Amino acid sequence: MPASYRIDRVKRRVTTVGAGTVSWDDIISHMESLAKDPDFQPTFTQLLDFTGVTRVDLNHDQIFELAKRTVFSKGSKRAFVTANAYQYGMSRMFQSYRKMFGTEAIHVFRGLEEAERWLEHKDEPGERAPVPARRA
To answer: What number of other Cβ atoms are within 10 A of residue 114's Cβ?
Structure first.
């Protein structure tokens, strides 16, 4: 996955943009780069834009392993934006596993605007993210 990221220290956000094929090695490399970046802080939010990803080359076990790892704090809001139903399902699987490990602040969206609004919204205790509308 040729991935790029931008850190906005003012918004306290990492924006990750993926393109092409997503693989295990690409994701691990991305996580390692973020962790080493002097501008990165684990408490930042993250917007992951997967709308340019054409293939997800991960299996169930790899998604589970990725869910066990994180460079973000448990309270960091992370919004995944997907391009199709397959990516949406894979991202939801990751979200479910992260919830098992104590992170509930991950949500999957079908549009960038909705994801950005959620990231910018200050949650009240117990508040849930909106359920994205289904596409026909």
So the answer is: 17
Region for 109 from its dihedrals, namely left if φ exceeds 0, alpha if ψ lies in -120 to 50, beta otherwise: beta
- Dist. CA 88–CA 131, nearest whole Å: 12
Q: Which of 52, 38, 28 is nearest to 112 (CA)?
A: 52
Could you report the per-residue pLDDT of 103-130, keeping only the tens digit for each? Answer: 889 999 999 999 999 999 876 444 555 5
42-93: pLDDT as tens digits: 999 999 999 999 999 999 999 999 999 999 998 899 999 999 999 999 999 9
Domain ranges of the chain: 3-120
For 133, which DSSP code? P
Burial of 3 (0-12, 13-18, 19+ CB in 10 A): buried
d(CA 12, CA 64) in angstroms, rounded, equals: 27
Distances (CA, A) of 52 to 55, 88, 114, 125: 9, 13, 17, 34
Q: What is the CATH number of domain 3-120?
A: 3.30.750.24
